[in-house]
User: What shape does this take?
Amino acid sequence: MKRKHLPELAQLFAQFAACGDGAGTAAAVAEAMAVDTSLGAGSPVRELAALLAVGATLPDAMAEMPATFGASTVTLVRNAMAQGQGVAAFELLAADYRSLDRQQREAWSGLTYPMLLLLGVVLLLLESAVFIMPAYSEYFASFGGKLPALTRFMIGALPALATLMGALAVGMMLLFLPRTGPPAAARVAIERILHRLGGVRRYHQHAAEPRLVQAIAVAVGAGLPLHEVVAHLSATSSGLEARLLGGLQSQLVAGLPFGAACQAVPGLSRRMGAMATIAEGSGRLADSLSRMGSLLAEQGIEQRARWRRRVAVSCYVFTAVVVALCVISLYLPVFMLGGT
Assistant: This one.
């Protein structure tokens, strides 16, 4: 699923929820939305409308689009419609796609410039290592002088610095830019290493928990199977978020109540699990989760924004230090030559 398609999918399922899940309703809604000229090439709404127009049911049409809808999402919609709870499933999906879109917009807006800055400095360092520094070395060697220690150090360190800064840029993309769809095995391996950092775990925990709680609140209120809802959330996540939600799904399938399942998954907030357990005992789980989800969403937005600011400032400082060392190492031989 591409990021640019999330808003139109959220709007589509919101329209499904508004119009109901009666026979032919989905086809009419999708057809009405498909004529929108603002939809770009490869629009999933148009593809879905074409499948519904030839008589496919909504779950079957979604199953024909595995790049957009995972098997868990199709199962959720199919079972919900069979039980007369299609509207609740549509509302859940609309809210979840809006949440994913908001997370991605936040991440891109806060980290695009720092990543481009790092990549630009990587190119500068590689150019210095391949062309500039060797030319300087040969030029000053012709005078019989010895290069300063800092310049010699930078000549040897430039390739390593370029690699390090490239790794930082890639790490930012892996850690802080939300994605949808199953990740590649190599990316999963890298994420497992990087997620050992406590701050990174907290960042993704703040991203996963509000989305989880808000979706579960809708599911509890409508009577949707919680493990199917969590399976959809896990399939549309990646990295640490997918592992947290996958662990929760396993606990729910094993028969644990939601509160106890949250407490049994390492990485999820134990406070959230304890509050959910109390709400389950009082019979107010849906209302409690709805309020908790709103609070967690507000806190999560603030905490993720703070993390992105820290990352951006760290990138600026690191870049400034590296560029300053490069400039000094280039001009230091000139000053020494002028003083002899």
User: Anything to note?
Assistant: The chain has a mean pLDDT of 78.
